[in-house]
Amino acid sequence: MAFLAIFPGFYFYHFAVSMYVIPSFLAGWHGPMTLIFAVPLAFSFLAFIFKNRLSVLSDPITLMAGLLLVYTVGWLLINMSLQPNHPGHEELVAAILAMFVYFMTGALLDLDGVRKWLLPCWIIMVLLAVTNVTIGAYMFQTSLETETGSPLYQGLARSFMVVAMAMIALPPGIVARLIVGLFSIAALFVIGARSELYGFILTYAIAELTMSRRNIFRVTMLGLAGLAIALVVTSYLGLLGASRQLLVFDLGADASWNVRNHFEYFARTQIAENPIMGVYGGHWQIEGGGYAHNALSAWVSLGIVGFMLYMALSIVAVTRSFRTIKAVDSAMSRFAFMMALVALVLVIVAKPVFWAFPAMAWALNTRAVRKKLR
């Protein structure tokens, strides 16, 4: 329920609002949903642990996630006492709550339970994206922001990417996965969030190669699909050349990239001056709160301890899920591997610590490992 509400629900809600089908009755949707599900998910997780007689200490990811939670809450409380009116408090509280809910959602997710909803949701999401290019050009590129301060199209891309990866994880056959993958790439291109688009392409390619490494037919099919995408892009380069998605090949001319470089330089300067403690909410020293769009934002706001825990979780999730998918090629292992890999890639190159997505990837890893052990 929480998975469907947070991901497809976010997408459908904002599309309906933008098309004036419904009023904006739940703000940006994401914030209210995390508040609604926080307590029920916490109780469900505790009940799950007691029912299955699990020990948090027996799972390294759950243990590290708990340590990161305790550390971050303690860091927040200390800085609230030292700087009561700092604008970073509200931002960090929202991030902690969202990560908590995302982790619980991943830990409790039953793919078989949501399977019957995923296909219709994915089909509608693709159709809404590719058939509303004119509406989408306004809605996806608008400066309207979600509760986390991210432009709306990034939230839409995040929601679609998660559903698309779940869809790819379900069918065992490469043909079905390629069909889902190609249509998903088209929808993400239209939505316009570059990090999600290229993160998805890279992650799916690596995951498919991992799953098909011993099958020449599958590897050939993947190569042909990649060639088809390259031919389409090349054929329509004149039409697509002005799109922001292809500006990644000329980043020097991209204003957004240059601004991000400025934010990252500022973060590096703060880290060099305060390598142990960082600068709590230091990005607010730039007008508007311009944080580094990568894991350095964790070092600035949480210090070196928070940064190391954050990165350790992301790296361990990828390595464990890689071993799991090699041992057991199941829907959950495929989904966990793709989610962990794309989370790691994006926190390295594009997303700040306030992006809650990685927490779900961490928890999915523990879910996949439990299934493998069974």
Topology:
Elements: H1 2-6, H2 8-18, H3 30-52, H4 60-82, H5 88-108, H6 111-130, H7 133-141, H8 152-169, H9 174-191, H10 194-211, H11 216-235, H12 237-240, H13 255-273, H14 296-327, H15 331-349, H16 357-373
Helix pairs in contact: 2-6, 2-8, 3-5, 4-5, 4-14, 5-16, 6-8, 6-9, 8-9, 8-10, 8-15, 9-10, 9-11, 10-15, 13-14, 14-15, 14-16, 15-16
Describe the protein's architecture and organization.
The protein is mostly helical and 374 residues long. The protein has two domains: 1-53 and 108-237, no CATH class; 252-374, no CATH class. The chain is 74% helix and 0% strand. It contains 16 helices and no strands. The protein has helices at residues 2-6, 8-18, 30-52, 60-82, 88-108, 111-130, 133-141, 152-169, 174-191, 194-211, 216-235, 237-240, 255-273, 296-327, 331-349, 357-373. Helix 9 runs antiparallel to helix 10. The radius of gyration is 20 Å and the shape is globular. The protein starts with a helix and ends with a helix. Residues 134-145 have low confidence and may be disordered.
Question: In a few lines, what is going on in this structure?
Answer:
This protein is mainly alpha-helical. It has 16 helices and no strands. Helix 15 runs antiparallel to helix 16.
